[in-house]
Amino acid sequence: MCYNSESIMNTSYLTPEILISSKQLDAIVSRVADEILADCRSDTELLLLCVLKGAAMFTSDLAKKLDAPVMLDYIKVSSYGSGTKSSGVVRLEYEPAIRDFAGKRVVVVEDIVDTGRTARFLCEYLTDCGAADIKFCTLLDKPSRREVEFVPDYVGMTIPNKFVVGYGLDYNEHYRGLPYVGLLNN
Ligand code: 5GP
Q1: 3-class DSSP state of 6
Q2: Phi, psi (rounded to 5 degrees) for 42
Q3: 36: three-class secondary structure by DSSP
Q4: Annotated catalytic sites, by residue?
Q5: Residue with CA nearest ligand 1 atom 15
Q6: What is the pTM of this model?
Q7: Closest ligand 1 atom, residue 77 Cα
Q8: What is the pLDDT of residues 125-146, one digit of tens each?
Q9: Distance between CA atoms of 104 and 42, rounded to whole angstroms?
Q10: How many C-beta neighbours within 10 Å does residue 106 have?
Q11: Which of 28, 32, 46, 155 has a CA positioned 20 to 30 A from the CA of residue 21?
Q12: Do 92 and 74 contact (CB within 8 A), yes or no?
């Protein structure tokens, strides 16, 4: 299915305005990978824990740029209902397969930190699972929207309070495949 197909047009598909270009994303991912590596000890295994689905592209690109042995796993939570409104309640939908966190630095890789509820939930969940060395990496951060205190360890870019799509981020499951981050309906 392509973006200009009739079915997508029926969902009022709009072409997003580019906020972060593909070239800028590449530079951001390189810089974040360098920051993660600079903090990493050689005797510690790096486990990238991708938060599905939004962080899938970011995580893949990050893993390729990290010049170190990397383990990959996935977790899925939900807080958003349909569209652009968060329900405020975070639920675990899919647990990581790796359960042994001893000797590992877990880097949670998220698409965007908004209210901070999902990030807080994920860190508490991993602590309960026995992870002692947790870092939080987000492609995008909207600090002006925080409802619970949370400061990510690695931030790709701080953005204003706008709804963004692309590079993994969706609106009702559309737009995830865009190679850039764009603004929708702003
Ligand atoms: P939080 O729990 O911090 O409020 O929300 C985090 C989640 O909300 C993100 O992982 C993402 O799925 C969703 N989210 C927050 N802001 C945006 C946005 O601007 N665009 C999209 N597509 N998702 C967002």
Answers
A1: helix
A2: -70, -20
A3: helix
A4: 114
A5: 114
A6: 0.91
A7: 10
A8: 999 999 999 999 999 999 999 9
A9: 11
A10: 24
A11: 46
A12: no
